[in-house]
Specification:
Blueprint (H helix, E strand, L loop, with lengths): L1 H13 L4 H6 L6 H13 L18 E5 L4 H12 L7 E5 L17 E4 L5 H9 L11 E5 L15 H20 L4 E5 L27 E4 L17 H15 L6 E7 L3 E2 L8 H4 L3 E4 L5 E2 L2 E2 H15 L13 E4 L6 E2 H11 L5 E4 L2 H20 L27 E4 L21 H16 L13 H17 L1
Parallel strand pairs: 1-2, 1-4, 2-3, 4-5, 5-7, 6-15, 7-12, 8-11, 9-14
Antiparallel strand pairs: 10-13
Length: 481
């Protein structure tokens, strides 16, 4: 009976929102607001040409974009082209070729692509050393490093090899290759999840009636960067631990001839049907969730890309070597207060032409199940002989582990530092999409694609988490060898 009371109370807390967080997100999206935004964006979508004046001016440089087929990297390529960069002065270095609809036509189709596995030093070097057009081979080189794998659910050190190989080893390979070919500006995408602390749900019973689980709501900032890198177990999962290590590699590489910096997008990034935040739920007819009440900051991929170009505009000057911006990270989010997942779900139910509904689950039940799933996954790793008789975990269930609950809590970010003028140590950043505009426009595009689909069946898009699973399968034989 006491255990039941404890679990019921914990479930109440996990389903609640502290007053401090409510004050940061006081207004909910309404049907009229969503319909008005949809009508406006359907008639006048926000495109790279519509915000061309916001993109920093063209520079006479060459560009390598690792991960240029993805969400942030793809927007960097599109913005470079919009400001007049010749397609043959840009190179995408990625595991797969671009498959985004907005990169399947026009100048984006002319951008060079080199298939690369950045976890391999040899493959990375090959992608960077490919000869350039004689028209551009003499120009200085900027590298935008956006390639990474996102595995937010694994936290045990036995499971860290994949993230370490791509996010840490891959970043070192990219830095080494960039230096070898003479790059002098290097801007990397890391993650605001670096600053997230593990949430301590299992609290003392006598504290449950007057407080919340430890770290149940957190501010996403860069204050941790001035401190010693935390130990692995102090991160909520392997993914943020790997991104933090990669960030230190990039920032510690800063020199007069190799000027570096990092952008930390807030949790989570969206802006294309391949994203996990909007595209992931849209691909489901029924979306199980326990996070409707959760308040979080989100950021559109185009806003993140603009921050990279803002950073490059500063680092392109050799004098920036001693600037306060160089060799450090900046957190980026949309220019509005955080929203709730219920706002997102209401948007999908209201605007999407494909069926969508949420199935509300009890968080404490899933938390308990997550420990069983993690135990099962570790069993197959520790004792490989069990793989002969026990099936591997597949699909979404493999990601339901305790770590996932630390990023399904209240997370609030701010552009206050990045938005400062350059003269005051900021990037002069300003976003072109609010979260309402960005998510609504993604639905506009989703509906356009699905208008002609018989029965309005969901078009198949591959999210970044699903891509990480594919990459892991593809590279596992090499790791075993």
């Amino acid at each position: 009976m006491l255990l039941s009371i404890y679990l019921i109370r914990l479930n109440q807390l996990m389903s609640g929102t502290p007053d401090e967080v409510k004050k940061l997100s006081p207004n909910r999206w309404t049907k009229d607001l969503l319909l008005e935004a949809y009508k406006s964006l359907e008639a006048n979508p926000i495109t790279t040409s519509s915000y061309a004046q916001r993109i920093p001016p063209q520079l006479s440089r060459r560009y390598i974009v690792t991960g240029g087929s993805g969400l942030v990297g793809g927007y960097i390529v599109l913005q470079l082209l919009e400001r007049g960069q010749p397609p043959d002065s840009i190179r995408i270095v990625d595991f797969r070729a671009p498959n985004r609809d907005d990169m399947a036509h026009g100048a984006a189709k002319e951008v060079d692509f080199v298939q690369t596995d950045i976890s391999s030093a040899e493959s990375t070097a090959k992608g960077f050393m490919k000869p350039w057009s004689p028209r551009h081979s003499h120009l200085p080189l900027t590298v935008f490093h956006t390639a990474a794998v996102i595995v937010p659910s694994d936290r045990h050190e036995l499971e860290r090899g994949f993230c370490e190989a791509v996010n840490v080893g891959g970043t070192q390979h990219v830095v080494n290759a960039a230096r070898r070919v003479g790059a002098d500006v290097f801007v990397s995408t890391t993650s605001a999840s670096i600053s997230i602390r593990r949430v301590r749900f299992w609290m003392a019973p006598w504290k449950m009636w007057s407080g919340w689980p430890s770290n149940f709501w957190q501010v996403l900032d860069d204050s941790d960067f001035s401190l010693t890198l935390r130990r692995h177990r102090e991160f909520y999962a392997n993914y943020p631990a790997s991104k933090a290590a990669a960030e230190r590699i990039v920032c510690n590489s800063h020199t007069e001839t190799f000027r570096t910096g990092c952008i930390r997008p807030a949790n989570g990034v969206y802006g294309n049907p391949t994203d996990n935040t909007v595209g992931g739920p849209l691909s489901m007819r029924d979306c199980p969730t326990w996070t409707s009440h959760i308040v979080q900051s989100f950021v559109h991929g185009a806003n993140v890309a603009l921050a990279h170009l803002d950073f490059e505009a500063i680092l392109a000057s050799p004098e920036s070597v001693s600037s306060s911006q160089a060799g450090r990270p900046f957190v980026i989010t949309d220019p509005n207060p955080p929203i709730t997942y219920d706002d997102l779900y209401f948007l999908l139910k209201t605007l999407a032409i494909t069926p969508f509904r949420t199935i509300i689950l009890q968080p404490v039940v899933l938390l308990l199940v997550s420990y069983v799933i993690e135990w099962y996954a570790l069993l197959l790793i520790k004792w490989p002989a069990f793989r002969r008789v026990l099936p591997p975990l597949t699909g979404d269930v493999k990601h339901l582990k305790p770590a996932i609950f630390s990023i399904c809590t209240h997370l609030v970010a701010s552009n206050s530092v990045a938005s400062r003028p350059v003269s005051l140590g900021g990037l002069g950043f300003s976003g072109v999409f609010t979260t309402l505009e960005g998510m609504t426009q993604e639905i506009v595009e989703w509906n356009r694609v699905h208008q002609a689909v018989a029965g309005r069946e969901n078009h198949n898009y591959q999210t970044s988490v699903a891509l990480a699973d594919e990459i892991q399968k593809a590279t596992r034989p090499a790791e075993t060898a």
